[in-house]
């Protein structure tokens, strides 16, 4: 349970579905309640599949390009820290990777569940790099099963939040969403710093100073 909560908390903080509420409401403002439910469902499914693929396939992509896991952790750590600072600076909407042109294009298309909602808004570079690193951190089969369950739980929460987005937007308001996002932003920065510092320590320890 401790490992499950650890992975769930890290993924939820980096993905930050609460910060996506204003964008989801804006993109689905002309849709029916049934259509919002369908989009919420497929967004959660797409996020789960993207996270799952990143977790199991990401290491082979690294090997193909000759990228070490510590280099990935440092690069991913910088991305995560940057996302955290964006949340603290109240730029969480812009940091979701959805620009005005993309938003206008999304409103013209019939299905926005995959893009821009699932990727890059929710399952972005930060969460993908985090999962690739986690695959190395948890080598045991039972640990990988727990990681998959945590991904499923995060996807379920994403569905519930997106499904309730219009109500949450009214209850929390813009100031409430910003306040929560700032708290999550601080946690995200801590996660990013931890990944960067641990990777630097690993690189230094691997250097043979006796030569």
Summarize the structure.
The chain is mostly helical and 211 residues long. The protein is 81% helix and 0% strand.
How would you summarize the topology of this molecule?
Layout: H1 2-15, H2 21-27, H3 33-65, H4 69-88, H5 100-108, H6 113-122, H7 125-137, H8 141-163, H9 165-206
Helix pairs in contact: 1-8, 2-9, 3-6, 3-7, 3-8, 4-7, 4-9
Write a structural description.
By secondary structure, the chain is mainly α. The protein has one domain (2-204). The protein has 9 helices and no strands. It has helices at 2-15, 21-27, 33-65, 69-88, 100-108, 113-122, 125-137, 141-163, 165-206. Mean pLDDT is 83; it is low at 106-110.
Q: What attributes characterize this protein structure?
A:
211 residues, mainly alpha, 9 helices, globular
- Total domain count: 1
Question: Overall pLDDT, averaged?
Answer: 83
The total count of strands amounts to 0
- Structural category is mainly alpha
């Amino acid at each position: 349970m401790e490992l499950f909560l650890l992975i769930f908390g890290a993924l939820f903080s980096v993905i930050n579905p609460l910060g996506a509420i204003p964008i989801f409401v804006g993109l689905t403002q002309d849709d029916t309640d049934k259509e919002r439910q369908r989009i919420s469902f497929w967004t959660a499914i797409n996020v789960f599949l993207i996270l799952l693929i990143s977790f199991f396939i990401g290491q082979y992509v690294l090997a193909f390009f000759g990228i070490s896991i510590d280099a990935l952790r440092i690069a991913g750590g910088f991305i995560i820290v940057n996302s955290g600072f964006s949340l603290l600076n109240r730029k969480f909407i812009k940091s979701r990777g959805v620009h005005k042109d993309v938003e206008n294009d999304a409103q013209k298309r019939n299905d926005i569940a995959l893009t821009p909602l699932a990727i890059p808004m929710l399952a972005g570079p930060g969460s993908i790099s985090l999962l690739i690193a986690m695959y190395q951190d948890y080598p045991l089969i039972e640990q990988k099963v727990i990681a998959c369950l945590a991904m499923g739980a995060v996807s379920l929460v994403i569905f519930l939040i997106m499904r309730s987005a219009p109500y949450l937007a009214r209850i929390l308001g813009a100031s409430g969403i910003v306040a929560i996002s700032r708290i999550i932003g601080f946690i995200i920065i801590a996660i990013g710093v931890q990944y960067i510092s641990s990777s630097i320590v690993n690189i230094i320890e691997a250097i043979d100073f006796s030569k």
